[in-house]
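ok trying this again, last paste got cut off
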Amino acid sequence: IAPFYATESIYLMEDGANLTRLTLPGIKAKGDFLLKRHLNTMRRINIGLPPQKQEPTSRLFGPNGLTFFGELLWDHNWRDLYGDALLDPISSLLKLSPTFLEQVSSLERDRRSLLNERLDQLSAHLESKGKISDPALGFKKLAKEHQKPPATHSCHGWIDNKIWRLEGHYDQKQFIIDRLVS
């Protein structure tokens, strides 16, 4: 397994401190195209949801999900992808309101990454009807006195110097995130 995780190989060709080092191309460089092409499928598999479309068996996908190479590619690259931009929800049961999109448009990279993770967790919670639910999500109905219409439910966003929450409401079966609240 070591060659997959190593960033360089060291070959001992001489005695003493004179070592020849040959760097290996990073997993990050190999995966940019593949990850972007199959991003939603990989996000769904990573969070525990089935793919929306059947991916052909390849270097990334095997009969039971991601191959070893697919997992390795995902593990080494997902943080960068999640920080690049706000990603579309991986479930049709989740919708982002224009107000929410405007609020999060200027988030810093690390906050955007946390938000994308939370949105994936919320998608899994909604699609599985609560069977796949990360405890960090904290999805709950708001008490009447804390509801600010149209929001009726809340989940955790992240914590830095204050607590950030996502508030939203159900429109039939679809959950709409109305706003980001600190």
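PB: full thing came through this time. The mean pLDDT is 85.
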